[in-house]
Design brief:
By secondary structure, this protein is mostly helical. It contains 13 helices and no strands. It is globular. Residues 1-5, 13-43 and 344-357 have low confidence and may be disordered.
């Protein structure tokens, strides 16, 4: 009897020792902070730390937008996870207001373009905090960023009495004067550059928006890992382009072939839109090809050196022969990674199919 009583007392003491502190609102134990109505992140960083990171990233974005997007993403995901409206407004203010003030006073960059970068970072953090960063959401964020950046520059050029074509001509002329056009071959190369830029200049904005989105995503991922937030983050190995994107690809190819059939007044616009959309679709499909490589490296337990060599080889093959784009397109039908495409999933998905295929 004495032994059983001692055992019961030890069990009770152990239970009290492991019981959660009522003042500790860690979501790991499912607690809710009284009066807040919001779940607190598992990490130790507070709301002030997240807002400070957003404000610091906003200031940096006025000079280096990509680095600012990283800082804003890392701070915004901390403040947006609790799903509190006041915290969301504070996050938006800290991410936008300092950037606008610094860009306006220092004239380091145009205020609207800086605000677009900061807005993309906040949007990426918001979607990640809700575990909704699917490929479609990512494409929407990047697409809105591209359109906003183009709109900002076009409006500014029109306000100055110029146009995008004039701006391209100035850039090409500056390049030609720098290299010195002394032969027919160099003049032909300069003219080819002019024609290429007049068609593919929107792709430059795509690269900028894609880089800002990627930097914001890296910042979000860093905070999620450091703070151990209960957020489902996208993994490259589970990246899967939606089926509707293939329909857009087919329509885009038809648009390229039909550019000569439309009236001459619209032929240039159709050709430019189709060509730049094809660039964007190629990037999306190439990422899927690299996702196949990442899945193979993860499931086959490939070493770090061999995996890095595979990525480098994939970059070379994509640049020379579009190999990764082709692999991504084939994966849409063959489903090499056995992804559960019938269910509604985020980019993160589950790894059960990977373990089965391994």
């Amino acid at each position: 009897m004495m032994t059983e009583k001692d055992t019961d007392e030890q069990t009770r003491a152990l239970a009290l020792w492991n019981a959660p502190d009522p003042e500790d609102g860690s979501p790991e134990r499912g607690d809710i902070v009284p009066g807040d109505g919001a779940r607190v992140p598992r990490g130790g960083s507070s709301l002030a730390v997240g807002l400070a990171a957003c404000a610091l990233g906003s200031v940096v974005a006025a000079y280096i937008p990509m680095l600012g997007c990283f800082a804003i993403g890392s701070g915004a995901v901390i403040t947006l996870v609790p799903r509190n409206a006041l915290q969301a407004l504070a996050t938006l203010a800290c991410a936008l207001v300092p950037a606008a003030l610094v860009a306006a006073m220092a004239q380091a960059a145009t205020v609207p373009s800086v605000l677009v970068a900061c807005g993309m970072a906040v949007g990426t953090a918001w979607a990640s905090s809700r575990s909704r960063l699917s490929p479609s959401v990512g494409f929407a964020l990047i697409g809105c960023g591209v359109l906003a950046l183009i709109g900002v520059d076009v409006i500014q050029l029109l306000w100055a009495g110029s146009s995008m074509a004039d701006k391209i001509t100035q850039l090409v002329n500056a390049y030609a004067s720098g290299v010195g056009v002394t032969s027919v071959s160099v003049a032909a190369q300069v003219e080819a550059l002019r024609v290429t830029l007049q068609v593919y200049w929107p792709s430059a904005y795509l690269v900028v928006a894609l880089a800002e989105f990627a930097c914001a995503l890296l910042g979000v991922r860093a905070s999620v890992r450091r703070e151990r937030l209960r957020v489902s983050m996208p993994a490259l190995a589970e990246y899967d382009v939606p089926v509707w994107l293939i329909g857009v690809l087919v329509a885009d190819i038809l648009g390229l072939t039909a550019a000569g059939l439309v009236p001459q007044a619209y032929a240039g616009a159709v050709d430019m839109a189709s060509a730049n959309l094809l660039v964007a679709l190629r990037i999306a499909c190439a990422v899927q090809g690299f996702a196949v490589i990442a899945w193979f490296i993860r499931t086959r337990h490939v070493g770090a050196l061999a995996g890095a060599c595979a990525i480098v080889a994939g970059l070379f093959l994509e640049d020379q022969f579009y190999v990764m784009t082709i692999v991504g397109l084939v994966d849409v039908w063959k489903n090499f990674r056995h992804l559960p495409r019938g269910a509604k999933t985020t980019v993160q998905g589950t790894t059960d199919q990977d373990q089965k295929s391994a």
